[in-house]
Structure formats: C-alpha cells, structure tokens
Amino acid sequence: MTEPKASNYQAYTGDESYFDAYNTYQRRHRANPRESDKVILGLIRESLEPAVSAPSILDIGCSTGNLLALLRRELPQAKLAGCDLSASSVEACRNDPDLAGIDVEVADALALTGPPRHHIAILNAVTCYFEEAEFARLLANVGALLYDGGRLIVFDWFHAFAQQQLCILEKSQGHPEGVAYHLRSIAAVKPLLHQAGFDDGDFRPFELPIDLPFPGTEGEVVSYTQRTDGGGRLCFRGVFFQPWCHLIARKTSEPDS
Question: Cα separation of 219 and 200, whole Å?
C-alpha cells in the first residue's frame, strides 16, 4: 500500500534539511526581534483583560522560540506554551536556556484537541501553508482551545481583493520540490472566523519600518523591500509582493460542528 501524500504544511515542516538552515536564520532575530513580532507583543498587551493576572498564551508554529523569548522578557507574568511540527525546532527550544520551563511540544496544529485553556493563541506566519479546508479546520481547532473572550492573533498574507484567492507554487533553492503559499482575501477569511466561533476580526496591514536589501536574482529567495514614490516600503519575496497583515479576532462562541 502506498503511503498517503503529505499535506503541503506537513511536507514543509518535515523538510529537516531546510529547517537546519532555517533554524540558523531564526537565531539572528533572538537579540533583535522582528518588527512584526513587536507588533504581536503590542496586540497581546492591547487585548489582555485586567482581571487576568497570569494569561495563558500558546504560540502555534513557534519555530525556535524567538517570539516566546520576547514574550517571556516583556510579559514575565504570562504562562507560555508553544508547539511546532518540526522536531528540530522543538528540540532547539527545549535546549535553549532562555526558554527553560516553557512547555514546547511537537504537535500538528490540525490535531490539537482538548478543553479551552488559553487566553491567547498565536499563528505567526504559518497559515499560508494550509490549504482551504485545512485553514478552516485550523481556525476551528484553535477556537476550541480558547476561553470565551480569548484572542486569536495571526500574522500572515491577507489582502483586500475580495474575489481573489491565490495559491503560488514556489520552487527555489530552499524548496527544490516546491512549496505552496496561499494568499487569502480578508472577505474570504471573515466567514471562516465566524464558523470557528470568532467575531469579524480586525485586519491591520503591516509595513516594515526598515529596509531589507535586495538579495540578487541567483541565490536563495528571501524577503526584501522596495521603496514607493511616497516613501513607503513594499515587501517582496522574489517576484511576488507579500501582503503581510496582522489579524486579531475575539472568541465569541463555540466553533460550529
């Protein structure tokens, strides 16, 4: 019997040769957090209920724990947890003295179960790897883990063109077999939030406040910025524009069955 083909997100996180290099890349941002992570920290502070003295925060797809380390420094009262499907990333977290005492486990986001137990759940640059049905299921799973009134915070590619949904297959030095990226419209995401028990959500387009250098056209594909005539910065990955956006949504009901 042939083995079932791994989903796009499973194939991506299962490519340990890629993640060896990616984990090294992530370490660069430990001392100097990414600008998008700083925004996530601000959104958490904005959404914390005054009555909750020790909020429980789950970072789904935590990679090597840069965001967890930032949250530990800035929100020492929080109870932090993380999970990732990459075993090497989780091992890096477990061996990191900055993350000592934080519960980090190998887990598939689509297999997360259990009663509500978190005030905040974070999906930081991971939802673009999930196909449409998987994305809806992911939102429902995360919604089930949150207390009533809890917050979901997402950083990913969401755009304003209501009728356009994009799936881009990238073959590159880092992904010679190809990896699919999903760029979703805000209009398409809102009903999925409702199905998962959330409100409409607040979508906040993100523009980098710093310049990222152009990497050239021959090597690995990485993000870079291009200045607009008005002085703004457009963020690209190779030939395509990345519509980065922060989303914060409040849990208002149980996910639809």
Answer: 40
- Strand-strand pairing, 79-84 and 233-237: unpaired
CA dist., res. 249 & res. 150, Å (int): 8
What is the spatial distance between Cα 138 and Cα 82, in angstroms, rounded to a whole number? 16
CA distance 143 to 146: 5
Q: Please name the residues in contact with 218: beta carbons below 8 A apart, sequence gap of 6 or more.
A: none
Q: Are 44 and 120 in contact (CB under 8 A)?
A: yes
Burial 139-171 (b: 16+ CB within 10 A, else e): bbbbbbbbbeebbbbbbbbbbeeeeeeeeeeee
Closest C-alpha to 210, from 22, 29, 27: 29
Total Cβ atoms within 10 A of residue 51: 5
Domain 8-210+243-250: CATH superfamily is: Vaccinia Virus protein VP39 (3.40.50.150)
Q: Which residue has 């050239």 as its token pair? A: 216
Tens-digit pLDDT profile for the chain (257 aa)? 444 556 777 776 666 665 565 566 666 667 789 999 999 999 999 999 888 999 999 999 999 999 999 999 999 999 999 999 999 999 999 999 999 999 999 999 999 999 999 999 999 999 999 999 999 999 999 999 999 999 999 999 999 999 999 999 999 998 898 999 999 999 999 999 999 999 999 999 999 999 999 999 999 999 999 999 999 999 999 999 999 999 999 999 888 76
Dist CA 30 CA 68 (whole Å): 10
What six digits make up the tokens of 225? 């910025």
Domain coordinates in residue numbering, the chain: 8-210+243-250
